[in-house]
Amino acid sequence: MEAQTEMELGAIRKVLVVDDSRLQRRILSSSLKKWGFEVIEADSGEQAMEICARDMPDLIVSDWVMPGMTGLDFCRTFRQLNSDKYCYFILLTSKSEKNEVAQGLDAGADDFLIKPVDSDELRARISAGARILGMQRELSSKNKMIARALDELKVAHDAIDKDLIQARKIQESLVPEFSRDFGRSRVSLLLKPCGHIGGDLVGMFSPGDNRLGFYSIDVSGHGITSAMMTARLGGYLSSRYFDQNVAMEKRFGKFYALRPPQEVASTLNSRLIADTGIEEYFTMVYVIMDLRSGLLRMVQAGHPHPLLIRADGSTEFIGDGGVPIGLLPDIPYTQYQAQLYPGDRLLLYSDGFTECRLENGDMLEPEGLLRLVRDCDPRQAGQEFLDDLFWRLTQVISPEFGLEDDVSAAFFEFNGP
Questions:
Q1: What does pTM read for this prediction?
Q2: Does 127 share its domain with 228?
Q3: Which end is more exposed in the chain, N or C (fewer Cβ atoms within 10 Å of the end residue's Cβ)?
Q4: pLDDT digits (tens, 9 = 90+) for 64-79
């Protein structure tokens, strides 16, 4: 029985007894000391407040009726002390009316005992208080652990956030320029990650006059792994280092030429398949243009169909579809051809456009993209057109979901040789 009591009362070690009657204090203290508690006595509420300010007890047993500061006033003042340790408060009273009990509870008392105090009842009330204190302190301990864990997570999050900001700068360096003229024609680019970093990539390069290559890529998944893949692809299709660009080949040791689009897709597919442990794949549209003749040659590997906007305002989605790169070995890729004329424009875009969710829950789809394009001012050109197109996209997206995927585009304007 004693062992059980010690276990039950383990949350209470130090008890403060407050009573202006010396006899009542001795009676209570005697019982409490017999049960193994450390007991402190105070003959007034004022003295009790001084003790509590120095050393907070686990339990207070206080008489209600005392000269000067009453037990009710003491309880109310005590509860205003700034302490992270909770103390269980029992008021001793001869009052049993409901309104008196309500007063005590409002002042911050946890329990009541009617005088004269029965020893067994006091012990039972202390036992109940000990259980409550035990649960409170366990909760407080867990809250502190959670707070420490949250602080550690915040430090880790801040470090990751800092790294991601730097990673975004590195990723942005993969697209050194967002608009460039090639003779009378122009390529403009749009790249809007849905997070710090993304898995979309757009780019352009030209090995010489009248020869131009540009592309739109969307790597599977999101986040860091997709971004790492775009960094790798940016090296494979470098606009600065032609000797590393798989879309070019050096001829006669003098100049670079653009390889056929289907060969570029096959080369990228072989390289990705050969890398064990890589589960990512990507979709792509890669276009090469002869700026003298207006002949367009293109490979489409699972990417959305490019939108061809003719000079007279008519539109059509072009391409043959194809299989994403990195899914299966030895996939044959085919070349698609089209003839462009001065004033024609071509829009390559990722599925971040067509698969964005509208307010009604439906996806934008290619037809929705076509409506956005037609809503844009036909006099707009280059970067201005892409910025307007993206702004119009943000106006129809559901606020509940926002941008769930990266959004990117490459816009080519052909104006003849």
A1: 0.66
A2: no
A3: N
A4: 999 999 999 999 999 9
